[in-house]
Amino acid sequence: MAHFLHKVFGVIHKNGLMTFGLMTGISIILSVIGFISMSDSKSFELWMLIQALVLSFDDLPTDENGLMILAKLSWMVTFASAAFSLFLKDWSHKQLFKSITENNHTAIIGVGELSYSYINDLDANTTIILNNNENIKSEIYKEHGFAIKDISVEDIESSLEISNMEKTVINTGDDRNNINLAFHIINSYIKKIHSHPLRLIVSIENRELNSLFMSNSIFNSEKFKDAKIELKTYSFFEECAIKLFQDNFIDGDTNSIIDSNEEYSIVIAGDGKLANNIIYEAAKVAHLPHQNILNIHLVSNNPEEFRKSIIKSYPNVEKIPTLKIHTKKLNYNSLDYFTSNIWDTKNLTNVIVCYDDESINLEITSSLQDKTYLRKEDVSTKVLFGVFNQGNISQRLDADDGSFNIFRSFGDAKEILTVENLFDDENHIIAKLVNYTYELLANKNYETPYNKNAKFEYNQDEKKRLAIDKHWFQSIFTDKTSSLAQAKHIKMKLKTLELKSVRSTKNRIKLLDINRKILENKLGKQDYDGDYDFPNNFYDKLFDRMIRLEHNRWNAYHYLNGWEYSSKKDKPIKKHDCLLPIKDFPKYFNEDKRLKQLIEWDIYSFMYLPNYMAEAGYEIVKMDQ
Known about the structure:
By secondary structure, this protein is of the alpha/beta class.
């Protein structure tokens, strides 16, 4: 009802502005005509007209005609209706805000740099809390029917209706304010003031502040496990880097690298926050069946300093055996930059132009096309350049399949800063299924059998959904983020098998059957039943190489996030006994059951892909379909 009234009064208010203008015009015309007919003195007429326009009727002649009376009435009606319209709009908006917050809703706390396309993804049950610095955006959101509250940052905490929040995005434009508000909400759960499930998305642009926030001991506590908060932090450049490798394969568009054991390379032309995040994502996804080495070439005016900043951000990055970081000192203001032999590096799959300033990226991209690639033939390298507020220039470059056919832009804020992308519901649910699969394996002394026909039915069966959610909430935070990283690597795993997933309207049972057959045929494991002995090597069979691929990916993810090897596992301080090359496991794990279980973790990552994809509504098909 509140939504209906708000829309009605919104129409009245919006149309009222036009009506107000029309009635003001009519009042002026009536006043002019009326005064002209009352006196022969032009100067007197002009003086009376001025008095009328400022509504000073008391000093005007009393022998007014009918037009003057109509003019007075017109002015009164004009201002009375305007005041009434404003009152109704304000009242209805307050009622709308109250109505939404009394029920389950999504809360957007500050919009920061979120694009206005964000609006289109929000449903009607959304409140938006703006701080006083964002008032200019208030009317834009109100016009789209959202409940808005304009308050100071200091008053946001006391105004939150946490009890009915289902999803919350905190993005005030200030990292410290965002962190404080996040802890305010989290503490209300720790103190058991609230207990309902909550998706909490927090914007933290500064990586060091984000690390400090996430290192808080509260996230490894039992109280946080019981809190039912699903937490995600993000930054714009982090989301840019993630989207970059969702849309582009790090090894190129073909399978020539995957099918070989050759090294391959990418160039990072940039030295800021975006480049830092791209290197992190590249190190997470660059894991292939033949353990191909990825060479990352840092190209900038001071690449050694940038390399040091990478090591500072990810101290264990050099422990990743399939990753090598190189530096090349070049100044993009010099011709030497564009004539360097770095652009002719063997198996150079991607050149990523990623300065934090998009104008620099466009300048470099233009020169690369004109001075480096214009006359080259059969170029398999893709040039990806960051443009964050994309307009005509980047769109034209993307659409040019002639001289700019190898160039593609990335980082469009209108695509990245959306509700769908920030909440990432699809990968989030798959991560829950991944987590639940491992929980099943860990139950009953690791004796839960492999079940290729397992049906999770997360969105169809409430009992199963609650069971999956229970395991998810009881997992420590780092296990959740690890499961999410595995979910996001599925596209790369399918590519290594020359497969891909496509959205399908087929029912889940049919999809599971189709997906299972195509995967098992590709792996030659139609009869796999969960029984698997540790192999002598991981080179001969694709099935074995996929095991090693997943373990290398898992190792890299944990190295990047500050984990270290220890013979004694201690997750709260990021120590793990499995941070070893998988071929060395028999030296460290002598118990057959434990060794089998460790291998099963990695096998499940790809053998349950048909189940995960079917649950999400995807069919697995050949890459060339």
